[in-house]
Amino acid sequence: MANLENGTFKKLDVVVVGGGLVGSLEALFLAKRGHRVRLYEYREDIRNTPQARGRSINLALSIRGRTALREVGLEDHMINNHGIPMKGRNIHRIDGSTYIIPYDSRTKQCIYSVGRNYLNGLLLQESEKYENVERFFNHKLIASNLREGFLSFQKTDTKEIVEVNADLIIGADGAFSAVRKEIMKQPLFDYNQKYIEHGYLELCIPPDSNGGFQMPPNYLHIWPRGEFMMIALPNQDCSWTVTLFMPFTHFKSLDNEDKLLKFFEKYFPDSIPLIGKQKLIADYFAGSASPLIAIKCRPYNVEDKALIIGDAAHAVVPFYGQGMNAGFEDCTILNQLFQKHHDDLAKILKEFSDTRWEDTFAISDLAMYNYIEMRDLVTRPSYLLRKAIDDV
Ligand code: FAD
Asked: How many domains does the chain have?
């Protein structure tokens, strides 16, 4: 591979901060180009730990995400061996009747329900195939000098400090990014964050007594109830991850078993036998609702030294199912820029930062809009839908 004008290859020393979905995918893209990649992740290796509460268990994978996975050779595996196709929305009315709104009845395109841990583990596993990738778990970024390419990590187990230098720092450390906090110290950095009044809490519909699905599996199930809603995505083991989105005030008011059951009997009666009364109570009171944040910021880079991608650059509310997908698209676009500019970091980082924000801001706005559409407008006749859209 040649990346310099004289036909030789300059191997870059890259540190990726964050081994979540986007960081582990970006590590693969960079490894494929022949660069040295060190991936530092705060948590333990996800392949050795059970699913953590408070992070979505499954996600909808769409064409943006699939395109990126295709580039690193993992699309077929995810679609054929793991993902569960969701061909439309299956809407649950209060009386328990349902109807279907197909996503694309003409070309039959669909989205896929995939497990977060499974996909993250697969990306990390794939990186083991590249000798030029090293993975460091239990390493928390605690300080940095991005212009100097300097990073300081603390090991979460031994508390030892580890200092590293890099030609390029990629911050893929999520919505509360430590790399972004450092970039914020730059003049002319624009930053906007918004917590919406709704939080989310995950419940579960287990498989039926024969180990099968209790609802038609190839749909994203939605219980739209105006001010709040519940959705369910299918899992490989025939269970469903059910997510209840509600204002925090509602979560707070459902503070005992009786109130919780009465609330479900009133608004989601058909879900009670599916979840099971005791399981509903146990799962609801086992956790607390998590907040939802949207972040818009720019620029994404510090000169030719550092760049933020994924949620670190553009966390969005989850109602458009595009957070991970947009983060994966960052990796595709970045790879195209590496090819276009022959690994010239100054040109790559500048072009990414100058152009990418328009699409990520648009995704963020669409996700905010879909927040209303999913919980409310989806249930209305089209003439009312048109009026409501005009009113937004
Ligand atoms: P993260 O997944 O947050 O990963 C960041 C990583 O960085 C973590 O592993 C973290 O431990 C690590 N880290 C953090 N700080 C440090 C530090 N200081 N040092 C070292 N490491 C650090 N998206 C979709 O596309 N489709 C969906 O259907 C969908 N559904 C969702 C449902 C819900 C309820 C929520 C909340 C989100 C959903 N999303 C969905 C969004 C998706 O989860 C995110 O966009 C995606 O996880 C972003 O990936 P990331 O790698 O950028 O960040």
From this structure: 2
Let me know whether 180 and 277 are in one domain. Answer: no
Tokens linked to 191: 């930053």
Residue 80, φ and ψ in degrees, nearest 5 = -85, -30
Distance 311 CA to ligand 1 centre (A): 6
- Residue 391 falls within a domain, yes or no? no
Query: Which of 17, 39, 42, 182 is the pocket-test mutation for ligand 1 (most atoms within 8 Å of CB)?
Result: 42
CATH number (domain holding residue 28): 3.50.50.60
Q: Are residues 252 and 302 in the same domain?
A: no
| 119 and 184 both lie in a single domain | yes
The ipTM of this complex is: 0.99
| Residue 104 belongs to some domain of the structure | no
Q: What is the spatial distance between Cα 78 and Cα 65, in angstroms, rounded to a whole number?
A: 11
pLDDT tens-digit map of 114-145 = 999 999 999 999 999 999 999 999 999 999 99
**CB 42 less than 6 A from any atom of ligand 1:** yes
* Domain membership of residue 167 as a residue range: 13-83+114-193+294-377
Q: Give the pLDDT confidence of 220-255 residue by residue, as tens digits.
A: 999 999 889 999 999 999 999 999 999 999 999 999
313 and 185 in a common domain: yes
pLDDT band at 154 (very low <50, low <70, confident <90, very high): very high
Contact (CB, 8 A) for 310 and 21? yes
The tokens of 187 are what? 């003049």
**pLDDT single digits (tens) 274-317:** 999 999 999 999 989 999 999 999 999 999 999 999 999 999 99
Dist. CA 237–CA 138, nearest whole Å: 29
Residue 70 sits at the vertex; the CA angle it makes with 69 and 72, to the nearest 5 degrees, is 70
